[in-house]
């Protein structure tokens, strides 16, 4: 049988670190891809020893090996959309950016893994500079949380007006769509702001009280958006469905160990 493009099922790619607890990183991304009915390819940038209480150690893959993984995937698989997560170092970011620049038709969701929920910086200043110069201009969408948006914009974001202004400025600066996640902000709702072209749109959902787990929600949101894009949905539709997917994943989270939970698996989109 002759294989033509219309017979090729789309797949998605995650370029990220592995979470030994299975809550975040590549493992969370694959769960989202599978929930959308997609095959998921992986490029592992780092191995982490972690659980929901924190990261004990990180082993970063050599940039040359990461580049080889990317070549191997793109050589054979019909990747329609991809996401990046933990890239760890300036050398890794440069290697990934160099390879992604060769794939302009693949939609790219860049999730900046810069600042942990605890407030700890996860990238050195020189790595942040390479990230902004080399990777962000390649993005279809970048999905910073509030602390990461503050690092990228170089200023504090104190209210909704600041958040909207930051989304507009980052979109103008890097010529890509920007989704600033408002989960770190106070309030009864978790509101994210998308700047796409000249259009601003807010995606909000109620906060769930005392969820079993929220670990991996950032990875899951970016992966679900990537899956939507790979399936052919528009950017705004992909964000809306991904926001709902994450809400349901939090609502369905469950215990898997002593004082340990994991996001649930919503049925499809």
List the helices and strands and how they pair.
Layout: E1 11-19, H1 25-35, E2 39-51, E3 54-60, H2 63-76, E4 79-84, H3 90-100, E5 107-110, H4 125-135, E6 141-142, H5 146-153, H6 160-174, E7 177-180, E8 189-196, E9 199-206, H7 217-230, H8 235-251, E10 254-257, E11 260-262
Parallel strand pairs: 1-2, 1-4, 4-5, 5-6, 6-7
Antiparallel strand pairs: 2-3, 7-8, 8-9, 10-11
Helix pairs in contact: 1-7, 2-3, 3-4, 5-6, 7-8
N/C terminus separation: 32 Å
Instruction: Give the low-pLDDT segments.
Output: none
Structural class label: alpha/beta
What CATH first level would be assigned? Alpha Beta
Name given to the CATH architecture? 3-Layer(aba) Sandwich
The amount of beta strand, in percent, is 25-35%
Per DSSP E runs of 2 or more residues, the count of β-strands stands at 11
**Sequence of strands across the biggest β-sheet:** 3-2-1-4-5-6-7-8-9
**Nearest-integer average pLDDT:** 90
SSE string, helix = H, strand = E? EHEEHEHEHEHHEEEHHEE
User: What characteristic shape results from the CA principal axes?
Assistant: globular
Let me know the largest β-sheet: 9 strands, mixed
Instruction: Kindly report the CATH topology.
Output: UDP-N-acetylmuramoyl-L-alanine:D-glutamate ligase
* Helical segment count: 8
Number of domains: 1
Q: State Rg.
A: 17 Å
CATH superfamily: Ribokinase
Helix content: 25-40%
């Amino acid at each position: 049988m002759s294989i033509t493009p219309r017979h090729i099922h789309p797949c998605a790619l995650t370029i990220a670190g592995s979470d030994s607890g299975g809550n975040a990183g590549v493992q969370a991304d694959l769960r989202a891809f599978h929930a959308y009915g997609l095959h998921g390819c992986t490029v592992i940038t780092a191995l982490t020893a972690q659980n929901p209480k924190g990261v004990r150690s990180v082993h970063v893959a050599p940039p040359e090996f990461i580049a080889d993984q990317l070549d191997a995937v793109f050589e054979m698989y019909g990747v329609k959309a991809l996401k990046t997560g933990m890239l760890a170092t300036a050398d890794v970011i440069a290697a990934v950016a160099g390879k992604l620049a060769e794939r302009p038709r693949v939609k790219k969701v860049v999730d900046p893994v810069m600042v942990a929920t605890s407030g700890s910086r996860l990238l050195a200043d020189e790595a942040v500079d390479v990230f902004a110069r080399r990777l962000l201009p390649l993005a279809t969408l970048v999905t910073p949380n509030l602390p990461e948006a503050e690092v990228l914009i170089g200023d504090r974001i104190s209210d909704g007006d600041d958040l909207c202004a930051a989304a507009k400025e980052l979109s103008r600066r890097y010529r890509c769509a920007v989704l600033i996640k408002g989960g770190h902000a106070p309030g009864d709702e978790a509101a994210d702001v998308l700047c796409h072209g000249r259009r601003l749109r807010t995606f909000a959902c109620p906060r769930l009280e005392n969820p079993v787990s929220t670990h991996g929600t950032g990875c899951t949101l970016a992966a679900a958006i990537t899956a939507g894009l790979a399936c052919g949905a528009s950017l705004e539709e992909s964000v809306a469905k991904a926001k709902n997917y994450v809400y349901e994943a939090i609502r369905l989270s469950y215990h898997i160990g002593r004082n340990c939970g994991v996001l649930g698996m919503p049925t499809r989109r």
